[in-house]
Amino acid sequence: MMSGVEIPLIDFSGCAINKVREEENLKRAGQQIINAFETVGFFNVVNHGISETEVADIFKISEEFFALPTEVKVKHRKAKDSNHGYVELEREGLNPEERPSDLKESFNFTPKSQYKPWPDEELPKFKTTFEKFWDLSSQLTLRILEAMAYGLDLEPQYLVNTHQLLGKDGNASTLRTMYYPGVPSAASIKANQVRCGEHSDFGSITLVYQREMGGLEVLTHDGRYTPVPYIPGAIVVNIGDLMQRWAADRLIAAKHRVLFPQDQELLSKARQSIAFFAQPDDQVMITCLDGSNKYEPIGALDYLNMRFGATYMDLAKGQ
Ligand SMILES: O=C(O)CCC(=O)C(=O)O
Ligand SMILES: [Fe+2]
Question: What is the 200 CA–ligand 2 centroid distance (Å)?
Fold first, then answer.
């Protein structure tokens, strides 16, 4: 790679979700994780306990969903006041000030029983595949949060206890599958349009599952966008702005983006990714963990709503 900044790679085998937790291993991994978040804001994690087959299954069913005709997909559209359902192509822009909407479509998943819609008729296994993947991703998130608490010298369960309602009412975490369609030629792309505009995430931590194509880039401290390499079996982990604020800026919520590939053949291929956006429970007060008063305390849900308001503003205009 040309850039001097490397994206750290962390071996999580001592803390994998299919293993009994061991303090020594969590401490060691916690140091590495905090070091990565203090310097780059991103790392790749391997040997985490989520199998390649489990990841392949959700990518496959996602691909089948996105291949459905638009009129079928929009039957499962996300309602305005919900965080569950289909979001159409170009409905959302993560850098709305500088760019047209992102050339992507997505399906947000929240496993609360009252949430609908599901493409049950078209894809009977969709719901169960997402539920299973939600479980795996939330288990890994909790392990990472536990390791982070060690790395930050907090009480070991401190961060885990703030995410007790993961998957239940009172917690806004979301699993999202994304589809960036292939483009026949660069001429058909709008000026300045990208697959995913420059942004930092909102919440506590994010897991990103990429595929062979890679494509994710992170703004590193040398002022350049550095590719986050695709490593077979690895998951990309980063923090959001809420975590940066909580850590009183000790940890970095780095900006990231996905551009169109330069290569004509790659450009014509679709890109898929899956992200698990973890949020603390709605009522948790985010008060600087270092005891400073660098930022005012704010409720986790209030913070999220403030950020969503900014991203979806354009959406409201378009309706
Ligand atoms: O598609 C990706 O690899 C990343 C997407 C992303 O950063 C996001 O949706 O927040
Ligand atoms: Fe992101």
Answer: 6
